[in-house]
Amino acid sequence: MLLLVAALTWTATGDPVQLGWIGLLAIAVVPGFVARGHAYLAPLGRAAEVVVTCLAAGSIAAAAQVADRVDAGFGAEAVLPYLSVPLLTAALRRRPAEGVWLLGLAAATMAAGGALAGPSEPLSQPGYLAACGQWLVLGAIITFAAETMRQLLQPPEPTPQPYAEATRLLTQLRSVARSLPGATLDPGGISEHLLEELRAVAAGHRAAVLSASGGGRLVVLAQTGAERVDWETTLDADSGIADAWATQQPQTASRSQARSHQGGDVSSLVVPLVAGVRTIGLVILETDAPGAYPSPVVQAVTEVTGPASLRLEAALLFDDVRSLATNEERQRLAREIHDGVAQELVMVGYGIDNAQATLPEGADETAEELRSLRAEVTRVITELRLSLFELRSEVDRNGGLAPAIAEYARTLGTSAGLRVHFTFDESTARLPAATEAELLRIAQEAITNARKHAGASNLWVTCAVDPPYAQIEVSDDGKGFADTRPDGRYGLTIMAERAERIRGRLEITPRHPSGTTVAVVLGTPPRRDSVRDSVSAQEGE
User: Fold this and answer.
1) Of 172 and 103, more confident
2) Is the pTM of this model over 0.70?
3) What are phi and psi of 234, to 5 degrees?
4) Which helix (H) or strand (E) holds 465?
5) Of 78, 84, 323, 398, whose CB count within 10 A is highest?
6) Per-residue H/E/C for 70-109
7) What's the confidence (pLDDT) of residue 270?
8) Is CATH 3.30.450.40 correct for 185-324?
9) Residue 107 burial (CB < 10 Å; 0-12/13-18/19+)?
């Protein structure tokens, strides 16, 4: 820009003396160029550039008129383009206030330069006023539109690819999960630890941690108390639970938050677990005494639940990611088996059929071998189809765990000629989705083992769910097996690992007079003698 205004000044005036303004301008540039980040030198340097430019405008306009090269003060156009440099620099450095006072300084200096330029008085000439007004307007546009210009000049950030972004986030999640205390992201464990913490700050005969599930219902992650409580799990009911969820504020009440209560004095406190702007769960505290939760107690409880909300949200999100990944992998395996091995086995069966059809008469021994081979291929295809059914089986969030287990047992029982007997006692409250999925897989493995290895005629399937308690039993009247250790068979090892993952236990016992019972138990049972003493469905085939 210095070279440009120097060339324009020489063209307009032909006077070497006027080039001295360009030299002064070059000196004024130095502070803003060398110390461009300095808080004081850089703005002072830009102010000096504005002053020198506007004073030079009056002088060059007068000299151009004397030299009779440019008329009516338009000679100021030779140097005024440089005014854009300090104004644009201030704007690009996000200094709008500096740009405003530089414009004011420019207007004042233009007036002073025009008045002091000599006998020709450029300030009284329309051309000088027009040139100065034009560059002041352009300077204002530069000052106030520079932010948009800066954004346009920036290179666009590359849009991350979905899978690349997912890989980055999962890598971070893995690193964070490994650095957590105890390296755990288990919602149930975190909920139990939260209830232990709350026991030290608030009295309570009963307590629970609930989180959201599909269908607008809540699931019990953990609860404490001498008796199992049927907590209200719908969010559209007239309850403190629904109010706390909707308002994101603690709610106290003089009535129980359970569906059924024996009556008498009771105090309940429902505290929402809020992460950011989203409610992820609730903590319920109840005690059999009136007025047990005044404001100081509520404050103490919220001080504990606040940090726990973030931990629980991380655990629930990790559970969702793990479930999605697991389900996707199961579906992928099912597709590959169906489109690969299963189709090839079908073609092998067709080949055996063709070979049987083309056998010459008298080849009875070969025909018998082919019939045996065909039967074996048919058996393997049946096993593959049942495996595909197992891979695709999922717990319907609107149906429940018991119907999913019943569908699988009924399908496998039909294929093996087993009489299947069901006993269900499932509460309306739900277990977490990841827990239900693991229980379904354990039940599937137990049913499959009974069908394949037990040689049984009858199969008994018992499903009792009273969150956070659950018990699944699969019994058969087959031959049983001697080795009941979980490490004795690969399938039992898998079931034991699944049970441990959901903080449950696997129990394998002989059934009298014959057969085996495989049970997975989660949590502690309600106060009843046995699971089967309070079934809500009649035993049937």
Assistant:
1) 103
2) no
3) -100, 145
4) strand 458-466
5) 78
6) CCCCHHHHHCHHHHHHHHHHHHHCCCHHHHHHHHHHHHHH
7) 92
8) yes
9) middle
